[in-house]
Amino acid sequence: MQGPQGAQGPQGVQGPVGLTGSTGPQGVQGFIGSTGPEGAQGVQGPTGPVGPQGIQGPTGDTGARGTQGPQGMQGPQGIQGPQGIQGPQGIQGPQGIQGPVGPTGGTGTQGIQGPIGPTGNTGPQGIQGPIGPTGGTGAQGIQGPIGPTGDTGPQGIQGPVGPTGGTGAQGIQGPIGPTGNTGPQGIQGPIGPTGDTGVQGIQGPIGPTGNTGPQGIQGPIGPAGPQGMQGPIGPTGTGTQGIQGPTGATGATGATGPSSGNNTYIETGSLGTINAGISYNQGGGNNEAFAALVFDCGSDKVVTEVAAYITQVGARTGAFQMAILIPRNNGQAEVIAVTNTASSISGGIFVIPLTTSVMLRGNTSYYLAVYNQVNAAIIGGFTAGASIGGDAPPINFRAQNLPGFRVGQSISTGDTSQRLSPWLYAC
After folding, report:
1. Could you read off the pLDDT of 316-374 as tens digits, one per residue?
2. HSE toward the beta carbon, residue 323, CA cutoff 13 A
3. Best CA proximity match to 289, nearest among 227, 197, 200, 178
4. For residues 42 and 418, which has the higher predicted lDDT (pLDDT)?
5. Helix (H) or strand (E) holding 312
6. Which of 352, 371, 367 is nearest to 289 (CA)?
7. 318 near 373, Cβ under 8 Å?
8. How many Å apart are CA 290 and CA 83, to the nearest integer?
9. Where are the domains of the chain?
10. Which of 15, 68, 210, 348 has the fewest CB atoms found within 10 Å of its own CB?
11. 230-273 confidence digits (pLDDT tens)
């Protein structure tokens, strides 16, 4: 058994380091002797030359394990000597039987560490002793510096989607951002249904005449149309007075001609037939005109003005115009003469001159028409039945959505729903 550890002696003076001798042959391993007292640290001598590698000797028999002697006192730290030449690797002996652990002796004072001896051969792995009790946790050490960030690992598999959270409270509306650039023109949507007809607006001024377009290719000659009206009489020529010829003989008296009668005007009816009023939006129409058929079996006549009978002036100001049309078939009529457009009206018989005089042929049907856009104004007229069967031009008609009258304009005569004729007079 191991005896108690003796008291540590005083630090001895380190002796000088001797010269390293040449390596001898490997001897047989002897018994482990008791540890002697550590000598004083000697002065480190110079490094000797490296000796040649010795021949490895044969493996000796493993000796019996001796008893472990008491631990000697630790000597003072000696001066490190020069590195010796490493000897040849000895043959490893067999693992000895581990003796019992003796009681721990008292800790002596820290001696000076002696020089580190050469590393011995590694012995066989001893049998592991029992694990001692876990010591107390030491104090927290100072945290070392943070190491560099490692490479990003591969993308992990996405976890399952969590349940939807409850809707948060309405946030405060942010400020309105700047207006973005205008986007490209969108595709035109379908045309919506026609809305209700709005209130008749005030007629705008007549725009300037557009530039004359290029001459189109002449189309094929159509069938001969009906005989047109005679144009206005041209201006009197201004030729020089010719030489007066000799006086001719007196001719025979001619026969008496027919009486001219009342052949200088034409009207839709007499003033005494007025029994109704025609408003500017009669029947809920918009931008509308009313016309009535006239006929005279007399001779041709030239007319220069048209008159209407105003029974109520209303707002008094607004577009007011009259015109003369000729039926082209049982559903269309063409404007052949127009008056100037008046911007205000007065009550009673209201006359407007034609822009150009026009000759009306005898035994020919015409329409006298009026376009009234004076708010709340009423024109005198009378009720009259529409033609039945559609084989003749209608007695009267209404036309809507007109900008006014112009020569050459074609107007539909198909709306006979109102059965009202305005009193109009052309002379």
Report:
1. 999 999 999 999 999 999 999 999 999 999 999 999 999 999 999 999 999 999 999 99
2. 25
3. 200
4. 418
5. strand 301-312
6. 371
7. yes
8. 136
9. 266-426
10. 210
11. 444 445 444 444 445 455 455 444 433 333 444 578 999 999 99
| Residues 342/226, Cβ–Cβ less than 8 Å | no
Task: State the virtual CA torsion across 295, 300, 306, 309 in degrees, nearest 10.
Answer: -40
What is the Cα–Cα distance from 418 to 426, expressed in whole angstroms? 23
**CATH 2.30.29 at 266-426, yes or no:** no
pTM exceeds cut of 0.70: no
Residue type, 119: T
Residue 283 DSSP class: G
Of 311, 371, 384, 365, which is closest to residue 340 (Cα–Cα)? 371
Structure tokens at 374: 């004076």
Name the 3-class secondary structure at 382: strand
**35 within 8 A of 73, measured Cβ to Cβ:** no
Residue for token pair 């040649």 = 52
Phi, psi dihedrals of residue 282, rounded to the nearest 5°: -55, 130
Rounded Cα gap, residues 96 and 126, in angstroms: 8
Say if CB 331 and CB 386 are below 8 A apart.
no
